[in-house]
Amino acid sequence: MKKTIFVVALSIAGFIAVWRFEPGPVHNTAAVAQAPPPSVTAPSTSAPPAPSSPTPSTAASPSTSDSPSTRDTTNETVTTQGSAESSRYGTVQVQVTFTGARLTAITLLQAPDSGRSLTALPRLQEEAIKAQSADIDTVTGATETSESYKTSLQAAIDARGTR
């Protein structure tokens, strides 16, 4: 009888420990999701003009003067920051990099360091890169963090339009 009480007590203690478990912080909170195809083609087209010019200082000047006039809408890289959005689980803020009109990278500037958002944020980044917008689904179990992420992302996308 004494052994039974001891086994039941340990089982309950183990169950409570598992039930209250929260995942720890991820060491890489500034994860970047990138879309490789546009980034790979852009550097290869900008690399040939530099070697064809005889002088290195001359090569730098035409490529910078050509960039605003010919590549302004096609290959210009612009980085914008979204608003810092707070919830009871922490603050989320993103930085978005655009190459031309395409969203190519999302970097987390601020993120909660515990809870379910640790697994939700990378999934939200992947979905936003695929969708090329902030119109993405929330992650179950991390609804408030997902909403904060989407709001910050939309602010960064809107900031791109005003430049």
Topology:
Layout: H1 2-19, E1 32-34, H2 36-46, H3 49-52, H4 56-70, E2 77-81, E3 85-87, E4 90-99, E5 102-110, H5 117-131, H6 143-161
Antiparallel strand pairs: 1-5, 2-4, 3-4, 4-5
Helix pairs in contact: 5-6
Describe the model.
The chain has 163 residues and is an alpha+beta fold. 50% of the residues lie in helices and 18% in strands. The protein has six helices and five strands; from the N terminus they run αβαααββββαα. Strands 1, 2, 3, 4 and 5 form a five-stranded antiparallel beta sheet that branches. Helix 5 packs parallel to helix 6 (143-161). The protein is rod-shaped, with a radius of gyration of 23 Å. Mean pLDDT is 74; it is low at 27-31 and 36-72.
Features:
alpha+beta, five-stranded antiparallel β-sheet, 18% strand, rod-shaped
**Poorly predicted segments:** 27-31, 36-72
- Rg from C-alpha positions? 23 Å
Q: Biggest sheet, open or closed, and with what strands and sense?
A: 5 strands, antiparallel
**Class per helix and strand makeup:** alpha+beta
State which percent range the strand residues make up: 15-25%
On the 0 to 100 scale, the average pLDDT is 74
Helix content: 40-55%
Q: Number of DSSP strands?
A: 5
Compute the number of helices.
6
Order of helices and strands: HEHHHEEEEHH
